[in-house]
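Full entry
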Amino acid sequence: MEAKKLIVLPKHGSKYATLEIPSINLKLPVYYGDTKKILRYGVGHYIGSYFPGENGTIIYAAHNDPGYFNKLDKVNVGDIVTINASYGTFKYQVYDTKVVKETNIAAFDVNHDGEVLLMYTCWPINRSVFGRKTQRYLVYAKKIGDNYE
């Protein structure tokens, strides 16, 4: 699988991809950036992480409100995740999930071997727990295929 570098980055706040996880019936827009405003509309791409196809770690975040990452904890090891970007399609297979403290910066490391998709949301995923949550639910997936357009 070939790694490429994007020549033109998406504009901050613009939608550049769709994230699909068929095992939990999830299909969401992905926006470049992860501000509070962006996260109201879908998945945010952490600035400073790689893009699909660049052979680095991609970090996506979303709220766990209904319709966003509210079923992320239902994803299992072996499940397939697809990113349909404006420049190609990228497939990943989940290899790990975990709960960490929000201060555990090692869990968000962008220095993995090969291309890794890291998706996260607040934990617990429970609408009866209000207020600030200090833990995060993480899903790690390794790239298994790509198709550039």
